[in-house]
Amino acid sequence: MKSVVAHFSTPLITGARFFSPTCLIQRQSISTVRCRKSSSSLTVMASSSAQSSSQAVSPGSAETDVFKMIQAHEAKAARLSRVEEIRTVLNGSVCGMLSTFSQKYEGYPSGSMVDFACDADGSPILAVSSLAVHTKNLLANPKCSLLVARDPEDRTGLRITLHGDAVLVSDNDQAAVRSAYLAKHPNAFWVDFGDFSFMRIEPKVVRFVSGVATAFLGSGEFSKEEYQTAKVDPIAQFAKPVTSHMNKDHEEDTIAIVHHATSIPVESALMLDLDSLGFNVKATLQGNTFKIRVPFPRRAQDRKDVKILIVEMLQAAKSVSN
């Protein structure tokens, strides 16, 4: 792995303010805010609509203490390795921004929103029309990139850029590629039209960035070999049904679990996603919104086991509160 910047957790910037190591900063038009941690300083870059002026909070304040609790918890919380997370997120994603070299405007990039699916090696598969500008661009110059956001609505969340070369899928691979694409896009009947064909983006390097506009910036890159060797987490595929159910019917239970696991008395807690080692939550406390990781007591083996683990965690939380 090359040029990886050490990263912490990535609290979400929402509402009026966000947490940083030794200061709490209200959202406004900010050019640079320096927050000191020991003898080093972290430069926080953020911009948003103008609101009230920034407010420093003394190290002994309740809000600073809460941040320290979050930081201490996040430092030891079990989670997937970064490359496993990237491989898993790309495998579960279905659309992204494809950048190609424009043939009409030589030397300039051309962006297109495209649907895709990953094959068994993690290579993105595109169903392209011969009429599309990006198809013509790729046939002339196969070098491209695909930008994918874990959550397009979260500006501070994980963003992945896969750089590679797009090649037409061979006749021998057509059936397997078609099956993989339709598994993610079951209504894409047009893939069998005469002007459509499949292209595979063969990865060269995969870059990531997270925590943008917070004090928790993380970035780096992985080689093709590192990316393709990483495993897709088998539990992440169940994230949507599990989180939807918990958020709709059991938010109070999630609050209890988060409080027990982190000792932070959160006021609300919504599950964002999950994997075999735990789940991520968007929580609020005293007007602040942040993300926090909640590890499972052990690795989940399957979807049924996820339910068992959540029930165990809830029972443990209730036994302490009673």
TrEMBL record:
Pyridoxamine 5'-phosphate oxidase N-terminal domain residues: 84-209
Signal sequence coordinates: none
Span of domain DUF2470: 240-313
Annotated Gene Ontology cellular component terms: cytoplasm
UniProt xrefs under Pfam families: DUF2470, PNPOx_N
Domain of life: Eukaryota
PANTHER family: CREG1 PROTEIN (PTHR13343), OS07G0573800 PROTEIN (PTHR13343:SF24)
Name of the molecule in the record: BnaC05g47660D protein
